[in-house]
Amino acid sequence: MSPWIKQVCLVLAAVFMLSSTTESKKDEALYCSACMAIAEEMNYSVSQTDPKKTIHVGGFRLKPDGSLMDKKVPLARSETYLNELLEEVCNSMSDYALYEDPDTKEKSYKRFAPRGNDGVNFPDFKNFKFDGPESSSALKFACESIVEELEDDIISLFSSEADHVAKTLCSEVSGIYI
C-alpha cells in the first residue's frame, strides 16, 4: 500500500474518532428559558384575543343537501392565527434578560419589560444581568431553534387548549427539563 493512502486512512480514522467523541452541548438555562418564554408569550397573546371572534375552518365542500361542510372555531385557537403568533413570538425575546435568583443563585431568563397596563410586579432589577444585545440574541436564537423544531407540536398544544402548556411543551414534548 502506498504511503499517501495510509496517511489518508489515518486522517479519516482520526476524524471519525474525534467526531464521535465530541458533542455540542446546549445551554440548559438558555433553552429552558426560551421554551418557557415561548409558552408565556403565546399564552399572553392568546389571552389578549377577543374570545367572541371566530374563524371558519374546513374544506368548504358542499354536502349532498347543498350546505357547506365547515365549522367555526375560536380565532385564538385556530391554526392560522397560532401560526401567525408563532412567527412573531421570538421578536419579544429582547424583553427578557438573564436573572439570577438571589437565594438559590439559579440563572434563567425572565421578562423584565412590562406589557402595557399589565400591572404585574416584576423582580428587583438588581438581580438582572443586562449584557447587551448579545444575551437577547442568544435567547432569540434558542427561541427560533425551538420554534423551528417543534412548530407543529406547539400549534397542536395551543389549539387543543391543553392545561399546563408550558410544562407539557418544555418537558414532555421538547425534552428540555424545567
Q: Can you walk me through this structure?
A:
It comes from Cyprinus carpio (Common carp). Keywords: Signal. This is Canopy FGF signaling regulator 1. Pfam families: DUF3456. About 4% of the residues have low confidence. The radius of gyration is 23 Å and the shape is flat. The protein is built from five helices and five strands; from the N terminus they run H-H-E-E-H-E-E-E-H-H. It has a three-stranded antiparallel sheet. It has a two-stranded antiparallel sheet with strand order 1-2. Helix 2 crosses helix 4, helix 3 runs antiparallel to helix 4 and helix 4 packs across helix 5. With 178 residues, it is an alpha+beta fold.
Largest sheet: 3 strands, antiparallel
> Are there runs of 5+ residues with pLDDT below 50, and where?
18-24
What's the oligomerization state?
A: single chain
Determine the fraction of residues in helical runs and give it as a percent range: 40-55%
- Looking across the biggest beta sheet, what order are the strands in? 4-3-5
Mean pLDDT: 80
Please identify the structural class as seen in this structure. Answer: alpha+beta
What is the H/E string?
HHEEHEEEHH
The beta-strand count equals: 5
Q: What is the end-to-end distance?
A: 55 Å
The percent range for strand residues is 15-25%
Write the layout of secondary structure elements.
Layout: H1 3-21, H2 28-47, E1 54-62, E2 68-74, H3 79-88, E3 96-100, E4 107-111, E5 128-129, H4 133-159, H5 165-173
Antiparallel strand pairs: 1-2, 3-4, 3-5
Domain DUF3456: 31-174
GO cellular component, one term: endoplasmic reticulum
Family: Belongs to the canopy family.
